[in-house]
Design a protein that fits this description.
Blueprint lengths: L1 H20 L2 H15 L4
Length: 42
């Protein structure tokens, strides 16, 4: 039973990390500086 709970907790933690990483608000905050850096300064 302990192995099952440990494995289940690892899966839940992995899913939370994936959902956080691919969230729309975070994506916009991470991608915006990249495009600002590529803009021409003229």
């Amino acid at each position: 039973m302990a192995y099952f709970l440990f494995g289940l907790s690892l899966v839940v933690i992995l899913l939370v990390i994936i959902i956080f990483y691919y969230s729309k608000k975070r994506h916009r905050r991470v991608e915006e500086p990249k495009y600002k850096m590529l803009e021409d300064d003229d």
